[in-house]
Design goal:
Layout lengths: L6 E6 L5 H13 L4 E6 L8 H9 L14 H6 L2 E4 L13 E4 L10 H22 L1
Pfam family, one: LMWPc
Keywords: Arsenical resistance, Oxidoreductase
Protein name: Arsenate reductase
Length: about 130
């Protein structure tokens, strides 16, 4: 029996909105029981300010995170890889759990349109946490 925590990697193109919101929710809801990472196939220079605002409304602070580039090692070390519109950019390794969440991209949208995306992500995360823990 191992005490190793499961690891989840969230991947989207820019790693500035959806994947960062998902990572923020999972960190919060898993309370340290799951290691959480996020990355992008073409990371943006900074996180989406509207995504930060939407998460802050729900008490989750993602303001200090930076978009990161997706690496083969990140995928290799993850137990669960969740993609969000990154197409074929994510390498596939046998034995990993892969999910593709069909979520709208919040880039360029006003806060009123990002809130439902945030809420959809939260619902996905709540299901994920109940399955993993």
């Amino acid at each position: 029996m191992t005490n190793q925590k499961p690891t989840v990697l969230f991947v989207c193109v820019h790693n500035a909105g959806r994947s960062q919101m998902a990572a923020g929710y999972l960190r919060h809801l898993a309370r340290g029981r799951i290691d959480v990472f996020s990355a992008g196939s073409e990371p943006a220079d900074q996180i989406n300010a509207v995504a930060v605002a939407a998460m802050a409304e729900d008490g989750i602070d993602i303001a200090g995170v930076q978009p990161r580039i997706l690496t083969v090692d990140a995928v290799r070390t993850a137990d669960v890889v969740i993609t969000m519109g990154c197409g074929d950019a994510c390498p596939i390794f046998p034995g990993k759990r892969y999910e593709d969440w069909d979520l709208a991209d919040p880039a360029g949208l006003p806060l009123e349109q990002v809130r439902p995306i945030r809420d959809d992500i939260k619902a996905h995360i709540e299901t994920l946490v109940s399955e993993m823990l």
